[in-house]
Amino acid sequence: MYWQEQYECMAREDLEQLQLERLQATLYRLGTHVPFYRRRLQEARFDFETVTSLEALAALPFTTKEDLHANYPYGLFAVPLRDVVRIHSTSGAAGMTTVVGYTRNDIKNWADLVARLFRAAGVTAEDVVQIAHDYGILTGGLGLHYGAERLGASVIPISTAHIKRQLRIMRDFKTTALVCTPSHALKLVETMMEVGLNPSELSLKYGIFGAERWSEAMRAEIAERLGIVATDNYGLSEIMGPGVAGECRECHGLHVNEDHFLVEILNPRTLQPVPEGETGELVITTLTKEAFPVLRYRTRDLASFLPDPCPCGRTLRRISRIQGRSDDMLIVRGVNVFPGQIAAALAEINGPDSPYLIVVERERHEDRLTVMVEVTESLFFDEVRKQWALADRIQERLATDLGLQVQVKLVEEKTLEKVEGHGNRVLDKRQL
Ligand code: DLL
Questions:
Q1: Which CATH code is given to the segment(s) 335-428?
Q2: Using 50, 70 and 90 to split pLDDT, how confident is the model at 423?
Q3: Does the C-beta of 330 come closer than 6 Å to ligand 1?
Q4: What is d(CA 367, CA 376) in angstroms, rounded to the nearest whole number?
Q5: What atom of ligand 1 comes closest to residue 209's alpha carbon?
Q6: Which of 110, 234, 281, 326 to mutate to test the pocket of ligand 1 (most atoms within 8 A of CB)?
Q7: Rounded distance, CA 368 to CA 360, Å?
Q8: pLDDT by residue (tens digit) across 306-319?
Q9: Residue pLDDT, tens place only, 161-196
Q10: Topology of 1-327 in CATH?
Q11: What integer pLDDT is reported at residue 351 of this predicted model?
Q12: Where in the sequence of the chain do the CATH 3.30.300.30 domains occur?
């Protein structure tokens, strides 16, 4: 049931010693190889000699998404590109994209950490693992793929398209583990009903779900309708991708891979630790990353620590499910979307002050993002062709910037004032 028992079940004292040594090495790497961090550490009057315990972390500077953007694309890499064997990225226009790199050793560690989460969920080398995350520049597909292969499972890299084909393959290839977002799993269940495929015709035993927020109610529904054990796993590209934390078969909290990541939970306003068990923002420091180490990265994801110990025997601390965000990021079909990206594109195309509203809905388990844009009276009553051309331009631009198909609806001036929830320009109608 373990993949790397010596680390997953390590005595706390030994783990903390290992973390300290790895933190020292990471700080050295950052301070000597990355000018941005050298400056930050100098500004904080940091002295390597003072890092004699993990408490030293509290005095170190934070890293934010804005820092990553300001150093686009390679400014925060700690090794020359010749040592980088993989590059991933999040969606976004140039300057709003996060670019991350991996050395060969980073890829090896990543595969092991993902193998841990598969193993913790019950998956073994005997299993047939079908991965329905996007196999592209995002970290989900390839990250999970390498981990499942490392475990020795038979991996089907089905990716996200052609839902009926996914089902046929799942039945014919006798898939035992389904890996995707929770909403994609529900979409599969619904399509099964439509095409008359009975879950008993499948060989599924495990569902390994992550990349977006979900609830216990969703877990119960997926588990029951597919007859599987459904576990949650969490990760983010800035830190590594999937494999940062994952649930064991207790299905009660996600074990953080603490030998590779140092996690703090802080009050997002005061940036001080929250009292034990309370919810705050996850702040993560990488301990082994070579190409793209990060110091105290503010993830903006909200969670709490769960009390020790876990009956599974792992000593790695657990966090709760992700309960929300401390910023306005949305996740739409597994893709991170910042309302600011949409605002910037609209400002360029339709003028800086044009009112808009972003509406996110989940219909038949599929997310839909619609951007409503107010246009001047003259255009609204003008030729339909001109309206279409504008809507097309916005749609194309957003598809490029976000990596996501978006619906664009042009509306008459002053329409949006009347829409409920307009205050923050985002109306998220999904019930999670
Ligand atoms: O979503 C990595 C991943 C892929 C994790 C596949 C698990 C499975 P990003 O695209 O950088 O990376 O998005 C990271 O997604 O900051 C969270 O807000 C959210 N997120 C990821 N996993 C979970 C989860 C991948 N289990 C952002 N529950 C993170 C809730 C999640 N939110």
A1: 3.30.300.30
A2: low
A3: no
A4: 29
A5: 8
A6: 234
A7: 6
A8: 998 999 999 999 99
A9: 899 999 999 999 999 999 999 999 999 999 999 999
A10: Rossmann fold (3.40.50)
A11: 84
A12: 335-428
